[in-house]
Structures are given as structure tokens and as C-alpha cells.
Amino acid sequence: VLSLAWLGPALGDEEEDGEVVAEEEKEKEEDEVLSDEIKEEDNVLVLHEHNFAHALSEHQLLLVEFYAPWCGHCQQLAPAYTQAATELRNESSPARLGKVDATAQTALANEFNITSYPTLKLFRDGNRTHPLPYTGRMDTQGIVRWMQRRAGPSATLLHDTDTTNAFADSQDLVVIGFFKDLKGKAAQVFYEVAAEMVDMPFGVAEAAELFQAYGLSADTVCLFKKFDERQTNFPVDPARGLDTAELTRLLRVHSLRLVMEFNNETSNQIFSAKIPHHMLLFLNKSSSEQLSLQDGFKAAAGTFRGEVRWSHGRDKGGGCEVPHPQGHPSPAQVLFVVVDVNGYGADVLSFFGMTPADAPTLRLVKMENNRKYQMEQDSFSDTAIRTFIQAVLDGKVKPHLLSAEPPEDWDTRPVKVLVGKTFEQVAFDETKNVFVKFYAPWCSHCQAMAPAWEELGERYKDHEDIVIAEMDATANELENITIHGFPTLHYFPAGPGRKMVEYKSARDVETFSKFLENGGMLPVEPPVVSEVRDPPTPGQPPAPAGQGDGSCGM
């Protein structure tokens, strides 16, 4: 745990001696702060405004963490960050790690526009004006690999067939770029992608014999896999060249198995690929009958991975080529995932309002808004699955919305308890002004706000035209309202039309009352610094926030 250590006065018989020592120590600390000397803590450079320029001049590659001592995510990162710094130092890498307490070094925080914690920025060759944002994983190996790719060539140069074959077989996933000009624009884009995608090795080749050996006639990026199809080729479009974001997306998508199994090792891959739709098969893997349903599921998967055209005679292992119809690559639309209801997947069942007894069953999720669609047919054939998915993509299927049952006394309490099936009739009552708190039972900020919300309910329980209500947004879903964090407060004013105002001000009874008495209006407060939160896994609560915006993310 990061904390501020205070140096107390030396023990002595006389109070004056203690005061003298304390004053001397204070002067010593002030002298140290004003010095440009660079101190280290566990191989991490301790930086401030007086030694920052010195650090940039001494280190070719310097990754700096801007942190806050109270930030929970900063505290979680600290051991991994320290270990990464040690590993880089031990291998005599030119890359070093540093840290800045952004709450104390406000000049640096303002200079580099630090608005959330932790924020990591890479400074290269002493350039202070254009640091690069850190884009890797927040763990030791993620940091080390990210820095190693920037300290040396991001891709290995391959000279001959034997070396290239060995490189392609070295890991489960390997990327090789075949370019006739390694100094051309397409090759430079490839190097940029290689620097970012540190979880797989990248190689480059320009020798004519290698183009011939792999059946290539033009610049091509090849993804080699030890599963599914052996090789997937991404030809470089002569007119468009290579696009960094698009190549990254294609490699991420096609590095996944055609059907993924949801577990601890694959969950990050599944969500970081950013595929817009996930088709989920929930089954009990201890049942041989249910396991057999995977055959039809896998047969349907190839249709929605993106348009793939199989090549003829390219290599002995078989390969596929992703074409560029009308000059644009086809997006992969649906990722197929198997979820074991009695294994790792048990934790996500509540997100779907399910229990293990509901297996086997199928759900499709739109990732942009977490809308879930339930396949009602009893058939698990590939034809039925393809038909269902296409109907969802065409907008012909309504989402399956969760709703708890309303408590018997939901309407008699000072704070009305809403559920999915009663929300519409209450929130959009044209005779009422309805103020609703959307909460999660596990959210500490919701729990802290609960007494104020109850008091507000008591204050307005006898007002005919004002309703104070709440809804558990983890157990209830609404078709046209998506909740992204907790607590979320929405005001639904009386009158015609389906109007909604999001409340973003102070969460105390008096401010709530001003908002209500003024017809749902309050001046907007300036933004506050918040923590950066990791993307959560659906069905699992995110890490609690620290001293940020006082809300829990979804």
C-alpha cells in the first residue's frame, strides 16, 4: 500500500532539541526536492518538476506513471510496475521506468494533461512535448514486452526459408510481413502494429525466395496458427496500402479460435478483440449429450467470422485469404463462445438471468449496449443458429430483457421500488415528476448514498406530483435506456413526450431538493479527476473506484 512516510523528531530529553532536529530535517527535505538529483525506489525513478528534465536527458526511453497515493488502481499496479522496472534494469535495457505523484507535482500533471490515475506516458529521446500514451497490459510482462518492442526492432528480420519456417512454427500465433521494400510505407505501418501487439512475435521478410516459398506475389501480411486454418493472409491493397487500426483489428480477430471457450486464460482475448456481437452457447460440459451440441455451433461460426475466401494450393497446411471487396476488408461480425455453466462461466450466469438448469441454451449479445437476444428454438443445428443470428443482425428480433418481480409493497414505500416490467408506467406517467436511482447492490457508492435517497423519499412522500424511486439495474433491463455506471440518476419530468434528464450534481438531500424544486435543473459542476478502470467482464462487478467521481463503472 502506497502511503506518505513522515519523519518524526528525534527522541531527546529536551523539547528544544526535538524542534531543532525537526527543523533541520525539514530544511534537508526542501533542499532534496529542489535538487535535480534522481533517486530510485526499487529501480523506479522518483521524479518531480526539478529533476524531470534531467531524467529525460539521461534516458532514451522513459515510461512515467503519473499516480495518486490514494488511488486503488495505482496501488494495485505498484508491485507489477516495480517488478517490470527490475526486469528491464537487469537485462541492461535502455528502457527505464519512473513515477510522479501527480497530486503533489501539479505543474507536471497540468503540463501533461493528467486527468485520471494511473496514467502512463512514454518519453523517447528526451522529447517532452509529444509523449506516447501507454497502450499495453497493466501487468509485469505486459509492461516489459511493450518497452522491449520500443527498445529494439519490433519485428525480426528473416533471411532464408529455414529460418522463416522455424520462426513461423515457434509459437501458436506468429505474424510475418512479406514486403518487397522494407523501407516503404506498408512496412512502416507493419512495424508500428508490431510495436503495439506485444503478445505475439512479428517477423519481416523481403527476399524473393521467401515470397516464392510461401506462394506470394505481392506484399502480404501472414498470420500463422497452430489451430483452425494454418495460415491466414492479408494482402496489402496496392491503392490503400496498410492501415494501422484495420490491420490490428484483423490480426486480433483472426488470432482467436473459430469457437472460443470462456475461461480465465481467454476472457481478456475475447473482450479485447472488440467484435461487435458474441454468440454464446451455454452448456454443462459434464453432459456428453450437451457437448455434442458444439458440432452445429462450430459449423455455423465460419459464416459470421468475416468473409473468408479459401485459397488453392498456397501451402501444404492450407490457408485462407481475407479479400478486400470494393476496396474495404469485411468486418468480423460475430464471435462464437462456449460457456460452461458449472465451470468458469458460472459467475456470468446472473448477468443473463440464468441458472445452470437453463443449459443448454443460446444467447446473442450486442456488445455496444449489452443487449441480449434469446434463441427460442429447440434446435441447435447450424442452420437454425445461422438463421437466428441473421434475424438479429437484420433487426427482426427483440432483445430479451431481464425483470425481477415487483415487491408487494413497492408502491407504498417512500422510495418506490421499480422493476423492468413496471418502469414504463411509473417513469413516463405524464402527471408525475419521477426521480430514479439506478443502482447495483454491490456498489459502495450506491450504499453510501442510500441514506440520503431514503431521506429524500421521506421528504417528498406526500407530494402528489413527485415520485422518488429506485431500480436494481443489475437485475432489470430497459429497452431504450442503457446504464453505464452506478449510481446513475435520471429525472423524468411530467408532461407529454418521453423526456429524460441525467442528474450529475452533488449527491446530498439539499441539492437533490433544489433540483426537484427547480423542475429538474441545476448548474453543471466542473469535472473531477477520476480513476482509469479496467474493462469489466459482463456479469462480474468492476473493481471499486477510488477517490474519483464517486461512481462504479459497469
Automatic annotation (TrEMBL):
Residues 535-544 have a biased composition (Pro residues). GO terms for cellular component: endoplasmic reticulum lumen. Pfam families: Thioredoxin (PF00085), Thioredoxin_6 (PF13848). InterPro entries: Thioredoxin-like_sf (IPR036249), Thioredoxin_CS (IPR017937), Thioredoxin_domain (IPR013766). It catalyses: Catalyzes the rearrangement of -S-S- bonds in proteins. Residues 11-31, 525-554 are annotated as: Disordered. Residues 2-152, 392-521 form the Thioredoxin domain. Keywords: Chaperone, Disulfide bond, Endoplasmic reticulum, Isomerase, Redox-active center, Repeat, Signal. It is an enzyme of class 5 (isomerase). Residues 12-31 have a biased composition (Acidic residues). It is found in: Endoplasmic reticulum lumen. GO terms for molecular function: protein disulfide isomerase activity. Belongs to the protein disulfide isomerase family. This is protein disulfide-isomerase.
